[in-house]
Design goal:
The protein is built from 13 helices and 13 strands. It has a seven-stranded mixed sheet with strand order 5-4-3-8-11-10-12, with helices on both faces. A two-stranded antiparallel ribbon has the order 1-2. A two-stranded antiparallel sheet has the order 6-7. Helix 3 links the parallel strand 3 and strand 4. The termini are far apart.
Length: about 350
């Protein structure tokens, strides 16, 4: 209820020529003046949206100094507009110690084929090969013209936690590459089945690794396997993953490389795109699955729609070490049908010289 003096106020009279005048009611005039006063108020009186008058506009902040280590490259552009992931592939290899006077190990034929699968199906603008000791051999000689070599700085610790095994060092190096350079990280035994283009619009993508425990469901995997990591540079998920190494324990194998990223994904699901166990890591390594993959013709990798196959080199070496261009063409099994397309034009000749 307005006060009596306000309701009974006389209208304001404005004189006009020829003894005419205009009478304006008092209430609209007062409301108009109040509105103008609010719109023209000093900026220091403004506190809308809960913002303090002392707030500093973030656009005025000085830029953060680049923390990217000097040995890691700047991100390359994505393949297409709208994609977030740089059009690059990363491998980390050759971290095993080499005794003085000895040659580094030869790059095996299966690794050559795996890297060719990435060249053919991903078509990256750059393939980075992070190493401490370069491999040797004819298959390496065929590949090296297509690679950008990066002599890496191998960490001995992270957050004060010791990194003794070369596999744990490689785990950290791949995360650093994803954090600062971004792109697609692949283990040396990942065979790319088809392009990853539809995955490159997400900030980070990883795939589930199924548990060997048959009592666990497809949504209760062993974890997210770090043999394939797809990420933009500066990903919040990768930053969290690196930060988790404050609790790293080298006595718990694969914990930070498989279990921890799955825990992080469940806590921060908006930061990572999670693919099912069939995307990268199928068939699995347990039971007779490796044997079936190399001795039977049951699984059609292309028809499955999966993006890649992890060949589980440490467990499948009995098969992988015997591969040759001739055996791949002549022996009909699921694995050979997948990798035939990756045989290079010089492989037969090079293989003959290599074996003789």
């Amino acid at each position: 209820m307005l006060p009596m003096w306000f309701r009974a106020g006389k209208p304001i009279t404005i004189p006009l020529p020829n003894k005419q005048h205009i009478a304006i009611p008092l209430l609209p005039v007062i409301l108009l003046l109040l509105a103008l006063g609010y719109l023209l108020r000093p900026a220091a009186w403004t506190h809308t949206g809960g913002l303090s008058s002392f707030r500093v506009d973030p656009s005025l902040f000085p830029p953060v100094e680049n923390s990217r280590p000097s040995y890691l490259p700047a991100p390359v552009p994505p393949k297409k507009s709208g994609m977030k992931v740089p059009n690059s592939v990363h491998y980390v290899y050759g971290l095993k110690p080499v005794a003085k006077g000895e040659k580094a190990e030869e790059l095996p034929y299966y690794a050559y084929l795996a890297m060719r699968s990435a060249m053919i199906n991903l078509k990256p603008s750059t393939i980075y090969f992070h190493y401490q000791h370069l491999p040797t051999g004819p298959w390496w000689d065929l590949l090296v013209p297509h690679l950008t070599l990066i002599k890496t700085e191998v960490p001995d610790s992270i957050y004060g936690r010791k990194l003794s095994h070369f596999a744990h060092k490689a785990d950290v190096l791949r995360l650093l590459a994803m954090k600062h350079s971004g792109g697609i990280y692949l283990d040396i035994d990942i065979f790319v089945v088809k392009p990853f283009d539809d995955l490159l619009y997400a900030t980070t993508t990883m795939g589930m690794e199924a548990s060997p425990d048959s009592r666990r469901t497809a949504l209760d995997p062993e974890g997210l396997c770090n043999a394939v990591i797809i990420s933009e540079p500066g990903s919040a998920f990768i930053d969290r993953w690196l930060a988790s190494y404050e609790t790293f324990d080298e006595g718990i194998w694969a914990h930070h490389s498989v279990v921890v990223p799955w825990e992080l994904a469940r806590r921060h699901p908006s930061e990572v795109q999670v693919l099912s166990t069939r995307a990268f890591f199928w068939p699995m390594w347990h039971g007779e699955e490796i044997q079936y993959t190399h001795e039977r013709n049951d699984h059609d990798f292309k028809a499955s729609g999966q993006y890649a196959y992890h060949a589980w080199e440490s467990l499948a070496m009995g098969y992988l070490s015997k591969l040759s261009p001739k055996s791949i063409r002549e022996e009909d099994n699921s694995f050979n049908r997948l990798v035939r397309a990756f045989i290079g034009p010089e492989d037969d000749e090079v293989y003959q010289r290599w074996r003789h």
